[in-house]
Amino acid sequence: MITFTGVTKRYPDGTVAVHDLDLEIAAGRITVLVGPSGCGKTTTLRMVNRMIDPTSGTITVDGRDIREVDPPRLRRGIGYVIQQAGLFPHRTIIDNIATVPYLLHQDKKQARTRALELMERVGLDTALAKRYPAQLSGGQQQRVGVARALAADPPVMLMDEPFSAVDPIVRGQLQDEFLRLQSELEKTIVFVTHDIDEAVKLGHRIAVFQVGGVLAQYATPDELLANPANDFVRDFLGGDRGIRRLRFVQELDAEAAAERRAAVPEPAEPPPGGEAAAAGER
């Protein structure tokens, strides 16, 4: 669990990026931070791995104050995925993915074997392992970024608008792959986006921020769409909020139906010769 208690970030010019934030992020779930530009969602994310330090308040990860942990050591234990992947252009794909294991002084062969396994897990052909980032498409680069964040098997992952730089079709594919991975790995994920549709699709819970770094509402997608906390949240969700909620509920119903079908055992195969043979045996 990640807990923010009374967290404020104020810059020297007086600008308040995050104001008196109280927030509990559940372990093993996806929490999405959403809101307009300048609302403090990325600042909130970056305070978790101490890329930015709060002016006041406390942030804990699994009960431990992050100020007690050396920043480089803290960051090596937290996966971090950013927009446009942030890959090292002079390193091959396999070595990009193995960056953190190398920093942790893991055996090079072992780290590269792990990198190849992760390429397959995120849907990348291992034949791309010796290529460089510039030789990959935008969607492939984002998959490399996710694989790199998973390389040291961190319990926490921070994702800052990781899919926003790709076209809508690829973005949908990446979202689906991300949900598949999370169903297998159950990481604690903090995901930043400005897109409410992406937030509803991915988040177990959604934190809506308004300008000034104020948390306007923290709720499940269904609760958020059904009961916006105030006019700001209602306006941010848009006039088609009802359609979004209907689509969300329909998708949940479809998933539940698929799970029920999967739980029903397949009918037994009839004996050779069909029903007549079975009758003859009787």
TrEMBL record:
Residues 2-237 form the ABC transporter domain. It comes from Actinomadura harenae. Residues 259-282 are annotated as: Disordered. Keywords: ATP-binding, Nucleotide-binding, Transport. This is ABC-type quaternary amine transporter. The keyword rRNA-binding does not apply. The keyword Thylakoid does not apply. Its EC number is 7.6.2.9. Belongs to the ABC transporter superfamily. InterPro entries: AAA+_ATPase, ABC_transporter-like_ATP-bd, ABC_transporter-like_CS, P-loop_NTPase. Pfam families: ABC_tran. It comes from the Bacteria. GO terms for molecular function: ABC-type quaternary ammonium compound transporting activity; ATP binding; ATP hydrolysis activity.
